[in-house]
Structures are given as structure tokens and as C-alpha cells.
Amino acid sequence: MSSVLLGYDIGVMSGAAIYIQEDFKISDVKVEILVGIISLYATIGAAAAGRTSDLFGRRYTMALSAGFFFFGAILMGFAPNYGLLMAGRFVAGIGVGYSSLIASVYTTEVSPASFRGCLSSFPEVFLNFGILLGYISNYAFSKLPIQLGWRFMLGIGLVPSVFLAALVILVMPESPRWLVMQGRLGEAKQVLIRTSDTIEESLQRLDDIKTAVGISASCEEDVVEIRKQTGSGVWKEFLHPTPAVRHILIAAVGVHFFQEASGTNAAVLYSPRIFEKAGISSSDQKLLATVAVGVVKTAFILVATILFDRVGRRPLILMSLGGMIVSLITLGVGLTIIERSQEEGTWVVGLCVSMVLMDVAFFSMGIGPMSYVSSELFPLKLRAQGMSLGMVVNNVTGGIVSMTFLSLYRAITIGGAFFVYAAIAMVGWVFFYVVFPETRGHNLEDVERLFGNLLWKFSHTLDAEESSENA
């Protein structure tokens, strides 16, 4: 539900912005700011969420994010002018920051190793489902009068926030790893029994967590000291990292940067504009094509859900970026043909639409859900605030892409903009090929051991791949 809220906000604004611009008579620059600013606002929530979740727990942090979404939706739905609409975007943006961090951290910490990749990609599954709901909402309310349609599109987002709050209160257990850090070992044991395949596995997971936190098997008085240190010293470790932590930071921040810098926000948030440039003039057809984007994103994330624990993280990321590079270059070529020749033939329109769909499909199969799965890279003490740092990078990069797309394509043509995104995706492919180790099948407490000596790990990964191919 947390990710549905986040996805709905992303998807619904792509269509609502068209009607807001017409209703409030605002410029394209103000539309860019309105659409993209939420990612920058989200950095505030993401920066605060790591510390909040360490102090008060993962559950209550998620409930707090639902509250921000609820009040943000009310403000946006009833906004009489652009200023109050931006205030609603600010409140909702804080919720986005909290939600995007805590969903991934909680899911990673509660999942057994055998299904962690699958379950950790679920936030991206439901984010895409939320985007699809946003697109459907655009189409459903587009027939209403302009001043009412976009208000319903934005305001109805309060419904999922109520469901989220109810789920947190009635259903969700607290993260067992957070409970151990608080010294609540009995509660942690009960949660692990509920979320492990066997009793033996739950006990082993508990012992591993206690070891990672620093609680010895025979001296649980260590708990008092651990509780005092919870959340402290984290930024000191980031500023003066060990080789393993430095490698983890490079890999995790790289995931968040390249996920957004490769232009996915441009394809999702401005898909109606892209389809218009491709030659689709009817508002209904543009919105229907946008719904198709949501359907494809949602369908292909399910592929990643199945394959993360079977194929592995690294191969899916490389395949994902490789497919995006091809689709972005081809989309840039198609849009350039239309712009230079003024040709609106069916084949070139179909090419552009299919390349947008191909781009979001490959994004959803690898690099998209990896931003959530990346929480597994950090050791327990650093996880919440490490993901907070990653989400700040994610939101700032996504905000820059969202707020510059219209200006960028006016400066270097819309085809040129997608060539830029393709070039960034190429750099990302090389980055992951060199830097990213395989973490599939490892317990969270063991993942840190995969990082450290970057060159050795790279050669080790190549040797492992070669052995696998020979086998």
C-alpha cells in the first residue's frame, strides 16, 4: 500500500498536469516544477526517515508516511490556486520520501533469504500498480469539467493512505532486526518464527542478527549498550568507511543514481507529451497509450519478481540496462525522424510508442526494483540511514530529470534528450559490470563479506560466471 501511494502520485500527475495547466493557465516551466518538485521534497522525508525508523521502528514510520499522504491528497484536491497546490505537493512529497525508504527496509528485514529478492521487489511491483491506477484515474475523470477532473484525480489518493494506516495497526509485525536492536528479543523471535520456513531457520536468523548487532549468545546485557548506540556513529562510518562499506556505498548510490538518471521519470511523467510529439493528437488516445505504459510496467515487474532469486541481481541489472539503451536510442531516432521530416506515418508512430513500452518493460525487469532490493547491501547498523542516503540521491536525480525534461528537449530536440538518457544508461551498464557483485541467496548478515576489495571481487565474479557457463 505504501508503494501504491507512491506510484499513484507519480502516475496521476502525468495526466492531471494537462488539466491543471489549462485550469490555472500556468506556463510549461511551472508544470515542470509542479511535476518534478515532489522528488526534491521527498529528499526531506528520505533524509529524516532513516533516523525516525531507527528511533521509533519501521511500523510507525510507515504509519507516519500514510499520514503525510492523507493530508497531502486533501490539500491538492481542494487547492484553489497554484500556491496551495504546491503546498499539497510538499506534504505529499515528505510522505513519498518516508514511504520509498521504509517499504524497502522493512520488506528486506522481514524476508527470509530464500525469497528476499522476490519479496524485496514487491514495492516496485505495487509502485507500478499504483502508476497504472494513476493512469486509469486520469482516463476515468478526464470526462468531468476541467476544474473538477484533476481534483478528483489527485484527491482520491487519500483512500490508499487509510488502508495503509489500517494495515500497519491491525496486521503488520515490527521488523525483527529492529526489535533485536531494541533488546526485545522475545518479540523478535516470535516474528522470525512467523516469517521463516522452519523453526530451525528462525533460530539461526535470530542468532545471526544478534551477532551482527553485537549481542553475544551468553551475555545479553550487551543489549543496553546496543540500544544506546542505535543510530549513532552511522555517519562517522560513512565519512570514514572501511573498504567494504565504501564498496557498498558506491554500489548502492550507483543503483539509485542510474535508475533515475537513465530517464525513466521522463518516460512515465511526460508520456502524454511524448506520444503527442510522436503524432498522437487525440487526448483520449494519448491517455489510453499512457495506460498501456502502466500495464507494461506492472506486467514486467512480475518477471523480475520471479527471476531475482533464480537468475540473480547482477544479470538482471545488466540485461535491463542493455534493453533500455537499445529502446532509448531507437526512440530518439524515431522522434528525430518525425521532428525533421514532419512525417506522421503509422509505422513511425508505432515505433515510438513501442519503444516507450520497451523502455519501461526493461526498466521494470531489473534496475527499477533494484533500488528497493539494494537495502540488502547495507549491514544492519547502517541499513536505514544508508537507504536514506540512497533515496536522497534517487529523489534529487529524479527531480532534476523531471524538472528539466521539457527544457532539455526544447534545447536539443526531444530525440536528443533520449540520446542523452541512452548515453547515461551506457555508463551505468559499465558501472554495474565492474562494481556490482552477486548477492543472491546470501543471508543479510553475510552480504557485507561480498564487498571490499573491488578488483578482486570483479575478477572473482568473472571467474564464477565462466565456471557457471562451463557447467
TrEMBL record:
PROSITE patterns (alphabetical): MFS, SUGAR_TRANSPORT_1, SUGAR_TRANSPORT_2
Subcellular location as annotated: Membrane
GO MF term list: symporter activity
Keyword NAD belongs to the record: no
Residues in Major facilitator superfamily (MFS) profile domain copies: 1-440
Membrane topology of the entry: Multi-pass membrane protein
Cross-referenced Pfam families: Sugar_tr
Key words of the record: Membrane, Sugar transport, Symport, Transmembrane, Transmembrane helix, Transport
Cellular component per GO, a single term: membrane
Family to which the UniProt record says this protein belongs: Belongs to the major facilitator superfamily. Sugar transporter (TC 2.A.1.1) family.
Protein name per Swiss-Prot or TrEMBL: Major facilitator superfamily (MFS) profile domain-containing protein
